[in-house]
C-alpha cells in the first residue's frame, strides 16, 4: 500500500544485509523479474467480528475460529492468553508467487525473555511454509528473520537481523514478505515503523535451491506467539494486503485499463478534459477559470463557526485567479470574540444544492500550505457529507495538519495527509489511513476517492492507499447505503482538538490552492 521511497537514515544500517543461498546456485534468483499484480486482499479491518476474522470477500474467508480472534471495527486481533502457543489466521486463498504485508502492534512489551513474535507465512501447505518473523524483544528491540518450516522442523534461511528501530506498546510496525520463483525460491522481507518511509531495499533475503525448497502453491497466514516470560498480550493487525507476483513478459503485454492512470506529483492523473479510463469524463467539474458559481461560498452568517476552530469564515477568503481557487487563512489585526477568541479568518465552499451524488469518483489537485514548523493548527480538508445530514456518515478524502503539533504521540503528521471514513459524528466510529511520507510543502498533488456498490478506495497521486469493503460491515450499511447523496466541501480550519490550536508561531497567512475539483458518475 505504501509507495517505496528511499530508506530513512535510521533504517539504512538495517538494509545492508548479505543474502545467503541455501543449496545450489545454478538457478538464478528471479525476484527482480517479477511485478506486483492486483491485490487479492486489501483489508482495512473495518468490520466487527466477535469470534474469528470473518470474511474479506466472497472468495477470501479467514480460517480463524475462537475467542482469541476478533475484529473491533478498525483492527483485527489475536489474543495470546497462553505462552508457548502459536495462534494463526489463514486466508484460504492459494498463490505461488506472492507479496504480503500488514501493520502490527502489541498492547504489552515483554520485560524479560525472548519477547513477542508476529509472522507472515507464504506458500503454506501440507509440505510446509516460508515465513518472515518480527520479534519484539524486551524494551522494544526488534529483529527480523526468515525461516522455512517443513515436517523436518525449522530451517533458518538467514540469521536474525537487528533492525534500526525500537517499538513501544501499541505502536504499529509494517511487516512485508515476498516469495517468488522455482526451482530456486527467492524469499525477502522488510520491516519498518508506521509513520516512516518504506525502505527501498530488503532487510533480509535468501534464495532456497535445496531439495526441501517449497515450489508449489500455498496460502498466506498471519500468526502470533509469545515467549514464556512475556505478559498476556494481544496483537493488533491492520491494512493486510496480499497480491500475486507476476513474471514479467518479454513480449508486448495486452493493454490494461487501469482504475487510475499513473501520475507524478506535478501531473494530473486525468487528461486535460478529465477523462479517466473506466470512468469516462467528469459529470461535474470546476477548473476555476471564472467565478465560483458551482459552489456556495460561505461566511460566518451562513455557516456559523466550526467546532474547535479559531477562525472566522469570510467570503473574501475564497477567490479564483489564473485557474486556481485559493482558500486563504489570515491572521486578523484584531481578534473576534465569537464562541471563543478567533484570531484568523479563513474560507469555506461547498456544493450543497448544486451537485451531489451517491457512488462515483471525486478528485482534487491542490497545493497545501503546510510548511514545516510554522503552521500549527492549520487544517485544510477535502471531504464529503450527505445532503441534509441524512446520515452520520462522512468521507474525508484529504485532511492534513500543520506542525509543530501538540498531540500526545510520537507520530509526526508533517508531509502526510489522512483519509478517513466516519460511520457517525461521534469521532470514535471510524477507520483512517495515512499516505506515505511525501514532500507536501510545495508543488501540486492529487487526492482521489472512488465509491462503488462494493466499497471505497482512497488514492494519492494516482495510487490507492486505503480500501474499505462494504461486505459484512453493518456500520457502513447504516451510514452510506441509504438514498442519501453526498456533496463536496473544501475548507481550511484553524485548530484541531487533537493536533493542537494555532499560536504565536503560526504563520500569518496560509494559502490552500486548488487547481481543480472533478467528479465522475458510477456507470456500473
Describe the structure.
Strand 10 (128-136) and strand 11 (141-150) form a beta hairpin. The model is unreliable at 1-18, 24-30 and 250-268 (pLDDT under 50). It is built from 3 helices and 35 strands. Strands 1, 2, 3, 4, 5, 6, 8, 14, 15, 16 and 18 form an 11-stranded mixed beta sheet that branches. Strands 19, 21, 22, 23, 24, 26, 31, 32, 33 and 35 form a 10-stranded mixed beta sheet that branches. It has 524 residues and is mostly beta strands. The chain has helices at residues 9-15, 300-303, 474-480, and strands at residues 21-23, 34-36, 41-43, 48-49, 69-72, 76-80, 87-90, 98-106, 116-125, 128-136, 141-150, 153-156, 161-166, 173-180, 185-193, 204-209, 219-226, 233-247, 284-286, 296-297, 311-313, 318-321, 324-337, 341-346, 348-350, 360-367, 378-386, 394-399, 418-422, 430-434, 445-452, 455-460, 463-469, 486-494, 509-520. The longest helix has 7 residues, at 9-15.
Q: What class, by secondary structure content? A: mainly beta
Count of extended strands: 35
Mean pLDDT: 86
Describe the biggest sheet? 11 strands, mixed
Shape assignment: globular
Could you name the key traits of this structure?
eleven-stranded mixed β-sheet; globular; mainly beta; ten-stranded mixed β-sheet; 35 strands; disordered N terminus
Amino acid at each position: 500500500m505504501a509507495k517505496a521511497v528511499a530508506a530513512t537514515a535510521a533504517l539504512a544500517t538495517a538494509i545492508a544485509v548479505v543474502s545467503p543461498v541455501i543449496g545450489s546456485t545454478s538457478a538464478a534468483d528471479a525476484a527482480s523479474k517479477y511485478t506486483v499484480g492486483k491485490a487479492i486482499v486489501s483489508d482495512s479491518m473495518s468490520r466487527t467480528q466477535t469470534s474469528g476474522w470473518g470474511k474479506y470477500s466472497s472468495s477470501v474467508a479467514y480460517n480463524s475460529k475462537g475467542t482469541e480472534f476478533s475484529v473491533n471495527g478498525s483492527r483485527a486481533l489475536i489474543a495470546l492468553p497462553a505462552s508457548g502457543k502459536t495462534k494463526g489466521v489463514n486466508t484460504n486463498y492459494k498463490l505461488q508467487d506472492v507479496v504480503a504485508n500488514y501493520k502490527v502492534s502489541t498492547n504489552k512489551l515483554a520485560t524479560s525473555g525472548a519477547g513477542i513474535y508476529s509472522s507472515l507465512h507464504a506458500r503454506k501447505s501440507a509440505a510446509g511454509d516460508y515465513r518472515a518473523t518480527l520479534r519484539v524483544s524486551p524494551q522494544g528491540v526488534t529483529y527480523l528473520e526468515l525461516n522455512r518450516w517443513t515436517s523436518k522442523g525449522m530451517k533458518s534461511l538467514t540469521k536474525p537481523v537487528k533492525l534500526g528501530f525500537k517499538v513501544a506498546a501499541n505502536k504499529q510496525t509494517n511487516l512485508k514478505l515476498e516469495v517468488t520463483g522455482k526451482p530456486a525460491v527467492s524469499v525477502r522481507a522488510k520491516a519498518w515503523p508506521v509513520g516512516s518511509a518504506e525502505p527501498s531495499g530488503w532487510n533480509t533475503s535468501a534464495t532456497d535451491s535445496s531439495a526441501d525448497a517449497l515450489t508449489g502453491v500455498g496460502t498466506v497466514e498471519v500468526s502470533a506467539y509469545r515467549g514464556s516470560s512475556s505478559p498476556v498480550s494481544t496483537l493488533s493487525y491492520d491494512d493486510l494486503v496480499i497480491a500475486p507476483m507476476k513474471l514479467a513478459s518479454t513480449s508486448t503485454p495486452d493493454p490494461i485499463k487501469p482504475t487510475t492512470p499513473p501520475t507524478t506529483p506535478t501531473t494530473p492523473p486525468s487528461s486535460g478534459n478529465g477523462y479517466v479510463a473506466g470512468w469516462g469524463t467528469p459529470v461535474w467539474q470546476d477548473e476555476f477559470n471564472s467565478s465560483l458559481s458551482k459552489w456556495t461560498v460561505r461566511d460566518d452568517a451562513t455557516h456559523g463557526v466550526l467546532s474547535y476552530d479559531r477562525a472566522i469564515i469570510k467570503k473574501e477568503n475564497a477567490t479564483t485567479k489564473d485557474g486556481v481557487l485559493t482558500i486563504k487563512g489570515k491572521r486578523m489585526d484584531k481578534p473576534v470574540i465569537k464562541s471563543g477568541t478567533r484570531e484568523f479568518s479563513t474560507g469555506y465552499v461547498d456544493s450543497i444544492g448544486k451537485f451531489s451524488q451517491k457512488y462515483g469518483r471525486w478528485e482534487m489537485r491542490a497545493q497545501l500550505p503546510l510548511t514545516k514548523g510554522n503552521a500549527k493548527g492549520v487544517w485544510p480538508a477535502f471531504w464529503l457529507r450527505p445532503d441534509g445530514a441524512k446520515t452520520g456518515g462522512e468521507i474525508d478524502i484529504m485532511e492534513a495538519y500543520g506542525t509543530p503539533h501538540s498531540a500526545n504521540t510520537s507520530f509526526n503528521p508533517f508531509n502526510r495527509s489522512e483519509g478517513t471514513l466516519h460511520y457517525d459524528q461521534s469521532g470514535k466510529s471510524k477507520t483512517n489511513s495515512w499516505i506515505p511520507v511525501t514532500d507536501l510543502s510545495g508543488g501540486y498533488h492529487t487526492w482521489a476517492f472512488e465509491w462503488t456498490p462494493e466499497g471505497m478506495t482512497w488514492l494519492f497521486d494516482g495510487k490507492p492507499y486505503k480500501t474499505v469493503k462494504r461486505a459484512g460491515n453493518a456500520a457502513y450499511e447504516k451510514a452510506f447505503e441509504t438514498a442519501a447523496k453526498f456533496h463536496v466541501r473544501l475548507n481550511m480550519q484553524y485548530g484541531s482538538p487533537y493536533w493542537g490550536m494555532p499560536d504565536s508561531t503560526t504563520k500569518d497567512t496560509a494559502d490552500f490552492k486548488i487547481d481543480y475539483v472533478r467528479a465522475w458518475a458510477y456507470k456500473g
